[in-house]
Each structure stands twice: as C-alpha cells, then as structure tokens.
Amino acid sequence: MSQFGVVIVATTSAALKAEKLLRSAGIKEQLIPTPREYSSDCGLAVRFIWAQRDEVEQLLTEQQVDITGIFPLEDR
Questions:
Q1: Per residue in 38-54, pLDDT tens?
Q2: pLDDT at site 5
Q3: Per-residue exposure over 43-52, b if at least 16 CB sit within 10 Å of its own CB, e if not
Q4: Three-class secondary structure of residue 38 per DSSP
Q5: What fold is seen in the domain 4-72?
Q6: What is the pTM of this model?
Q7: Checking DSSP bridges between strand 4-9 and strand 29-33, what pairing results, if any?
Q8: What SS3 class is residue 60?
Q9: Other C-beta atoms within 10 Å of 6: how many?
Q10: Across the chain, how many H-helices and E-strands are there?
Q11: Which residues of the chain, if any, have pLDDT below 50?
Q12: Per-residue pLDDT at 74
C-alpha cells in the first residue's frame, strides 16, 4: 500500500484552493506535478498522507473543490 495519495483536479486554481484548505486543516500536503497516468488536464496535483484519505475527501467535498479523483500515489 502506498504511503501517499494524490488529489487530481481539473484546474490550477482548484489545486491551489485544495492546498490552502488542507494546510489550514492541519493536513500535511504538497503540490506536485500531476502524474500522467491519472490526468493531463492540470499540471498540478496535491499529495497527502494516504491514511488521511477520508478526511481529505470530506473536507474538499464540503468546500466544493472540483475533484477529478483521489488515488494512491505509486511508489517509485
């Protein structure tokens, strides 16, 4: 199982909003280039600790961030 997950969004503004919301909620996050196996729409995605997946999804959904998907980030 992967240690990290990735939130895929369609726009840069959604990625920045997600980053800000997660940070303010105390969830450790990092903007990363979007892994091409998940999307090519937006160049940014948000990495987070996979154990917090449910919390991340709930927060971003409540704050109406347009999420394309949430996936485990493959170890490389």
A1: 876 779 999 999 999 99
A2: 96
A3: ebbbbbebeb
A4: coil
A5: Alpha-Beta Plaits (3.30.70)
A6: 0.89
A7: unpaired
A8: helix
A9: 22
A10: 2, 4
A11: none
A12: 77
Token digits of residue 30: 């990092």
Structure token digits, residue 70: 């949430």
CA 2/CA 74 separation, integer angstroms: 6
DSSP state of 25: T
Instruction: Give kind and range of the element (H or E) at residue 6.
Output: strand 4-9
- Output the six-digit token pair for 68: 């394309």
Terminal Cα distance for the chain, rounded: 12
Q: How far apart are CA 1 and CA 20, in angstroms?
A: 26
Which CA distances in Å does 43 have to 8, 51, 59?
A: 10, 24, 22
Tokens of 15: 């990625």
The count of residues in the chain is 76
